[in-house]
Structure formats: C-alpha cells, structure tokens
Design goal:
The complex is a heterotrimer of chains A (about 350), B (about 290) and C (about 250). Chain B is built from 12 helices and 2 strands, in the order H-H-H-H-E-E-H-H-H-H-H-H-H-H. By secondary structure, chain B is an all-alpha fold. Chain B has one domain: ABC transporter involved in vitamin B12 uptake, BtuC (Orthogonal Bundle), CATH 1.10.3470. The chains are: A mainly alpha (about 350), B mainly alpha (about 290), C alpha/beta (about 250).
C-alpha cells in the first residue's frame, strides 16, 4: 500500500473514532444511515462499475437482509451471527435472481431485475409473518461483550466496523483476478468468453456477491433504524445507490462512497427546505449524467489533463496500470462511460 | 360479467400506457422510465382543464384530447432537450437519464399540485352504471374500452399503412441503414416520442376519474406497463395489447376469487410467459440483450 | 504399434443455415496436429462461418466438430477454450480500456484457473511472469503500459495472438491475421507466426486474403466456395488447379 494510502486510511479511522464527539448524538442517526449507504452503493458498483451488470433490483437484497436481522433480533441472536445471516440471505436471494435472469443482459436484464425485486416487495408486504404493510418494529441489537447498543455512539461504532469490513471485502474483490476478469467482461463479454471465461457464471457470482453486500447494509439498517418496512424494497430504492455511484464516479473504488455521503447530506438538507426533494435530485442526476459522466472524483484528473495536455502528447497521461493499482488508494484508470456497458446488438451479428 | 368488464377496462388502460412505452422502446431503444411521469402529467392536466367537475361527454372527450396533446408537447420539449443527448450514450446511462426525468416530473408535480390527492369526476352522462346480464357495469368503462380499441386500430393502420409507419419500421430495424436510405431519423424519433407520450397522457387523462390523483401515480402505474412490455415482447404493440388484456382479466378474476393472489397477477403472468418464451409473447430475440 | 495423435481439428458433414441461406453445406475438414492450414475462398464462401462453428460461436445444424479427438459440437465457446481452441478475430478484439499488460493478464488468470478467485490477489501476482514472457515473445514488451485503445491495428492483432497463446491451445484460429496491416506489419506477422509454429509445433488454422501470406505459411490449403469444399491439398498443387484459378485466383491475376 502506498504511503498516501496508509495516511488516508489512518485519517479515516481516527475520524470514525472521534466522529460521535464532533457531531453530537442528534445528528448521529443521519451519519449512521450515510455510512450504511456507503456500503450499499459500493456493493452496487461491483455490478455497474466492474462487471457492467445493470441491476435495478438491489433494494430487494438490501430489504431481505434487513428483514433477516429484524426476525432474529427478537430471538436475541448475537449481532455477528445476525449480520452474517443478513449476508447469506442477501446472497442467496441474489443468486436465485441471477438464475432467473441467466440468459438476459442489458436493458432486458435491468427490467427483469426490477420486476423480480418488485415481486419480492409485494410478497413482503403481504406476509403477516413479516409484519405486512407495517413492517417489523422494535429491533435492537443485543449487547455484545458488555457493549450496549442503546447508546448512540456504540451503535455508530457497530455500523462503522461492519461497513469497514464490507468495504474491505469489496476492495479485495476488485483487486482480485476475479475483479480483473469482471472488468474484461464489462468491456467485451464475447472476447472474454473466447478466453475461456464462463461469462454468465461470472456475472452470477458477481451478482451474488453484490447481493451479500446489500444484505449486510440492510441488516445494519435494521439495527440502526429499529424498524424495517416493505418501503426498503420498493423499486425506487434501487435507484438511490445508482445515483450515488454515478455522482461519485463509477470507475473509482471510492466513487460510490463519496457519492453516498454527498447524496445523503443533500437529501437530509433538502428534506428540511423543500416539499419536493425529488425534483432537485432529478436535476442533479441529469447534470451529472450529461456534464460529469465520470463523477466528482474525475474532476481533479480532468483538470490535470487539461493543464498538462501538451506535455504528455496526444494520448494524454499514462493511465495507472494494474501493477501500480495493486495496493494503491488512488483511483483506477477512469473508464470511459462513452463505451457501452453493454455492447450494441450489432456487435454479435458479425458473421460470414 | 362484472369481472370481465372490470378486467377489460383495466387491461385497456394499461394498454394505452404500455403501447406508448413499447413504441418508444422498439423504435428508439430507450427504456423510458419517465413514461409514468407523463401519464401523471396527463391526468393532472385533464384535471386542470376539467376543474374536477362532471362535464358533458363531448367537453370531456375534447379536453382529454387537449390534455394529451399538451402532454405530448411537454414530451417533445424533453425529447429536444434531453433524449436527443441520451441516444448517443450507452443504454444503461440513457435509462438513468429517463429516470432523472421521472424524478423531475414527479417532483415538479409535487411542487405544483402538492401531495394531497385530488379527484376528477366522470362525464355527467356516464356517471351511472348500466346493467348487463344482471351485473352493474360503470358506463365510464365503455369510454376507456372504446379509446383502447381505437388506439390499437389506429396504431395498426399508422404502422402498416402509412409512409410514416414505413419509416418508423425502418428506423426500428436499423436506424443507421434507414438514415443512409434517406429517412430523417431525428424526425422519426421526435414524432415517435411525441406519439408515445400522447398515449401516456391519454392514458393518464382517461384514468383520472378512476383513481385518486397524487404525484406518486407516476411510479406506481408505470410498473404494470413495464411488466406488460416485458410480457408482450419488447417493441411489440400487438404483444402489449394481448398482455395488457390478459393482465387486466387475470387481475380482476383473482381479485374476486383469490384476493390474496391478486397483487401477484403481474408476476404470475410474467413468470408463466417468460419461462416458455424468454423474448416475450411477440418479441424478437434480438432485444433480449443476449450478448454472448 | 505406434499411435498417431488424433487430428487437431476434424469437421465432419457440417451444415449451417442462416434464415434459409446455406452458409456451410456438408463441409469436411481435417487438420493433422502440428500443421499450418489455410482456408481460402472468395467473399461469402463460408470461411468465417466455418471458423465460428469451430470456435463455438455457432452450433452447426448438422455434423460434428472434434478438437484433438474430443467431440466439442455442443460445447459453449468458453468450454472449447479448455478443450484447446484459441482464436483471434478478424477485427482484433481486445479490452480497450485496459493496458496491454492487463489484457494479457485476463488471459493468463483464465488459463491458470485463478480468474474465479475473488478473495485474494495472489493470482494476479503469479500472472506477472507469464504475462511478461508472453509480451516478450510477441515483441510487445515496450508497449506493455499502453492502453489497448491507443494501439495500431497491427499491434492489436499481435496482442490478441499473445492472449491466445497464453491459453496454451492445441489449435490456434487466426481469422485474416494480416487484414488491415501495412506491408511491413504483414511481413513481421508472417515471420512471427512462422517462428511460433517452429518453436511450439502448434496447429494453426487460418483464413487469409493475401495469397503471399497463404503461400508463405500454409502447408495445406482448403478452398471453400459457396459453402462447400472445392478441394484440399498442397499449396503448389492447389494453385495449379483450373477450377480454383477460375473461382478464386483467377480474380486476382
């Protein structure tokens, strides 16, 4: 790991430790939900940023993770066991979804995941065992090693530790041969298949892993919010992490995290000043899509490229290679959003 | 009988919305999330013009058409400002662009009309129900079914029999080749989009008296239309007609015989169709998006 | 008793139709292990379709495909790679947003079977040596940090061959390996493939328009015309045949 990376990590850890003192308990709930959103958005970016899988149903896996924790919290399951359950449930439901969508890709896949997630929403809303429309209230994390999670600061530490574990897992996935192969699949699935990669299976695994991450985020949300309701699974909830990762930058590991913090803060603010935050979020999303497709994290690199254009010749600066990127905190080479996440249909018709 | 009538009416309403959606998807290859937003705009504009009151039927029909046309104008503006930029972007980015527009439309409606539900009365001569085979069927249903039948027939004639239809089909098949052959692709796109949004607005304006209007109908109603597009096959208007009617009828039968299942009719139908035909009832394989 | 190795490719009675058009009509092709074999024929003769059927892009409507004695007719493309087929495309397909080195890494981890490992980065470290060796072999060492999108068509094709080679195939399919190359690049590529073949004894099946390339490399020729095999044989014999001259060589002389 680079020196800058270590310094950044240490700063983050220190910040996380002292945050409850800085913020005060009134605002802590907001920050709890913001770091949970960081994990959720990072998990979704394994699909959008790495594998090029456009899922519109991630809220379902977040939701089932939340319900898993809500159900076992009443039976006083210890926190780690309950959260592991959330990971497993999120992963299993995601894996089942990937089997149902096995042969589809692109827009059809996006619409099918939306439909499947919405079917789960309807199901959860109807099942009395899950509290129906009203959901399950009164969820608390039982004390662990004498730490009591009624305390707001302790709950914050619980969230931060598990979010950090989740981020670490996604960091390793991204830097693994599997992550590298997902990048290849995103750029040209057919080429990857002719290198011996079983593209559909890899997509299914990526989808399952993202479901695990969403499940964990949902489980943490259950402890934090103390009530879960079907609203967590509603289809528009699947769009929120996507907006976050676009805002921060789809091709950076920390893009979704930055986007999650920014969007959470913005939503929190808009909620106080307007009756319709949707309108402003819509405008923001359009501006990012059209003017800043690489997200906020691409701004420094873009400025630098503009300033140094002449020095580096027509091809621009050398982008960071894989070897440099292993163990670096910095951004990966910004992929170009202008290349389709999914190849054009004409691509596969090049026969004879 | 009442089940049949309700199912048919529901199905026709869904068809009105889904036909515009599938038209835009088939020709422009854009999944338009904002379609639901235009449905909602159509409902509110009709409400503004009719002022919520019961009007004579000819006033109602005229103003519903005016409201739909006004919605189409809003659609046309958004095509110029936004969609024209989205065509060049990858499919998934354009999907998010249309989602952004949905948020803007819904949020805009919240700012203009607020969150409190409003209701639109039916035309004065259609307020009451009539009796068929011992069942009470709302007269207003006839208007919806008539609009659905006219739309289906009109689209069929437009696509199969007119020069515009020929151009539209060519662009849907291969926009690049169509452009080379002298079709003005941008104009076809704009016209298709305006037509699709007109249908969304018409669906909304006609649905107005059957629902309690809140900006949120933009996201709730669109889901059924999406499902119908998937079931019917991407881009197939005939497929969406069959799927919409099947959905409406299944909905209505389940609601009376197995209420606990009624909310799942959408997913039951979708699962049943997709297991047998992954590309939908009348869809082509090409749009399933297989990329291997 | 000596056993001869099974042929690298054996295509038997393959028929492939597209929407009523017969692209391949009862095609037979046998390439013994270790041979460089060229498939030639005018445009639309079915060369690309034959390659697609061998590589696993299309399933034949009838007939069988064997690779090194193994029946692969109904195998998906990615499983044929494991059976020993590697291919380069007519228009080189590489991962445009990756560097040259990263491109080859994708192939190496796939060949090592570490590409499915998501919990550790070890597979990437173990790939470094073989990647560097493959790049040296294809003389791409100087370009290893270059983005693939910034490469010339000739370099892309060499990169694609490098990716194919690290899969250690029994059969290398080259679809028009010199298309779009300058004369210098073409000469270099011919030399490279020849060198490769002498070093590894790899079986190579190629299509090519450039007759100099064909006669410079191929030990055997198969001539396709309108989806059927016209003849197979030594280049020197084939080029003298009247019917071949008529349909194919005749056009260029």
């Amino acid at each position: 790991m680079t020196r800058r990376g270590v310094a950044g990590l240490v700063a983050l850890v220190v910040l996380a430790v002292v945050w409850p003192q800085i913020i005060g308990s009134g605002q802590l709930f907001f920050w709890d939900t913001a770091v949970i959103a960081v994990l959720f958005a990072t998990s979704v970016n394994l699909l959008f940023g790495s594998a090029g899988i456009p899922s519109f149903g991630q809220a379902a896996f977040y939701g089932v993770g939340a319900y898993a924790v809500a159900k076992v919290a009443g039976h006083a399951w210890p926190v780690p066991a309950a959260l592991v359950l959330a990971v497993v449930v999120g992963g299993v439901v995601a894996f089942a979804t990937s089997l149902l969508t096995w042969r589809t890709a692109g827009l059809a896949f996006a619409m099918l995941t939306l439909a499947i997630a919405q079917a789960l929403y309807t199901l959860v809303e109807k099942v009395n065992w899950l509290g129906g429309y009203n959901g399950l209230p009164g969820i608390t994390a039982p004390s662990l090693w004498g730490i009591n999670f009624f305390n707001q600061a302790n709950l914050w530490y619980l969230d931060v530790v598990w979010v950090a574990l989740g981020l670490l897992a996604f960091w390793r996935i991204r830097r693994s041969p599997f992550g590298h192969t997902l990048n290849a699949i995103r750029q040209d699935p057919r080429r990857a298949a002719f290198l011996g990669v079983n593209v559909r299976a890899y997509r299914a695994v990526a989808f399952t892993l993202a479901g695990c991450g969403a499940g964990l985020a949902g489980g943490l949300f259950a402890y934090t919010n103390q009530i879960v309701s079907p609203a967590s699974l509603y289809w528009t909830e699947s769009a929120t992490p996507i907006i976050m990762l676009l805002l921060g930058g789809i091709s950076y590991f920390w893009g979704p995290a930055v986007g999650a913090i920014l969007l959470s803060a913005l939503l929190n603010y808009l909620d106080q000043v307007t009756t319709s935050y949707l309108f402003y979020i819509g405008i923001l999303l359009l501006v990012v899509l059209l003017l800043l497709p690489q997200g906020i994290l691409s701004v420094p690199a873009t400025l630098q490229r503009l300033l140094h254009r002449n020095r580096d010749g027509p091809l621009g600066p050398r982008r960071r290679g894989l070897a440099d990127a292993v163990g670096g905190l910095g951004p990966e080479p910004p992929g170009d959003l202008a290349t389709p996440l999914v190849p054009e249909p004409t691509d596969s018709a090049s026969t004879s | 009988m009442i089940i049949l009538a309700t199912g048919l009416t529901d199905g026709m309403l869904i068809f009105l919305v889904a036909s515009g959606l599938t038209l835009v998807l088939g020709v422009m290859r854009v999944v338009n999330f904002s379609h639901g937003g235009f449905f909602m705009i159509g409902a509110y504009l009709a409400y503004e013009l009719l002022r919520g009151h019961a009007q004579p039927i000819w006033v109602f029909v005229l103003l519903v058409i005016v409201a739909s046309a006004a919605t189409a104008v809003v659609g046309l503006v958004s095509e110029r400002v936004l969609f024209r930029r989205l065509y060049k972007l990858p499919e998934v980015t354009s999907l998010l662009g249309t989602y952004a527009l949905l948020l803007i439309l819904e949020g805009g409606a919240q700012l203009i009309w607020g969150q409190n539900p409003v209701t639109q009365a039916e035309p004065s001569s259609l307020v009451h129900a009539f009796t068929v085979a011992g069942a009470q069927v709302p007269r207003y249903d006839i208007l919806i079914v008539a609009a659905g039948v006219l739309t289906a027939a009109g689209l069929q004639v437009l696509i199969k029999r007119t020069e515009f239809g020929r151009q539209l089909t060519a662009v849907a098949e291969d926009r690049f080749m169509a452009g080379l052959l002298g079709v003005n692709v941008n104009r076809v796109f704009a016209a298709t989009f305006a037509l699709g949004i007109f249908l969304a607005g018409l669906g909304g304006a006609l649905a107005g008296p059957t629902l309690s209007m809140v900006p949120d109908i933009a996201v709730t109603f669109i889901l059924q239309a999406f499902a119908v597009v998937i079931i019917g096959g991407f881009g197939s208007i005939g497929g969406s007609l069959i799927a919409a009617l099947a959905l409406g009828l299944l909905n209505s039968f389940l609601a009376s015989d197995a209420p606990s299942l009624a909310d799942f009719s959408l997913y039951i139908l979708m699962a049943a169709v997709l297991i047998v035909r992954p590309q939908g009832l009348l869809g082509s394989r090409q749009l399933v998006g297989e990329d291997l | 008793m000596t056993t001869t190795p099974p042929p690298a490719v054996e295509v038997r009675n393959v028929v492939k139709r597209f929407a009523g058009n017969t692209a391949l009509d009862d095609v037979e092709l046998t390439v013994p292990a270790g041979q460089v074999h060229a498939v030639i024929g005018p445009n639309g003769a079915g060369k690309s379709t034959l390659f697609a059927v061998i590589a696993g892009e299309h399933r034949p409507d009838r007939g069988t495909v064997h690779i090194a004695g193994q029946n692969v007719t109904s195998m998906a493309a990615h499983r044929r790679v494991k059976a020993g087929v590697a291919r380069a495309f007519q228009v080189a397909r590489v991962f445009a947003e990756m560097t040259v080195e990263e491109n080859v890494t994708v192939a190496v981890v796939a060949a090592h079977g570490t590409s499915r490992v998501f919990w550790s980065g070890g597979g990437l470290r173990r790939a470094r040596r073989p990647v560097a060796e493959a790049l040296e072999e294809m003389r791409l060492g100087d370009l290893r940090k270059r983005q693939a999108r910034a490469l010339s068509q000739g370099d892309r094709k060499r990169l694609e061959i490098a990716m194919a080679l690290v899969l250690e195939p029994k059969l290398l399919l080259l679809d028009e390996p010199t298309a779009g190359m300058s004369p210098e690049e073409t000469a270099a590529t011919v030399e490279l493939v020849h060198e490769l073949w002498t070093h590894t004894g790899l079986t190579v099946l190629l299509t090519e328009h450039d007759m100099q390339v064909v006669f410079g490399l191929a030990q055997q020729l198969t001539v396709l015309n309108r989806g059927t095999v016209l003849c197979t044989g030594d280049p020197a014999v084939v080029r003298e045949r009247e019917d071949v001259r008529e349909i194919y060589l005749g056009a260029s002389t």
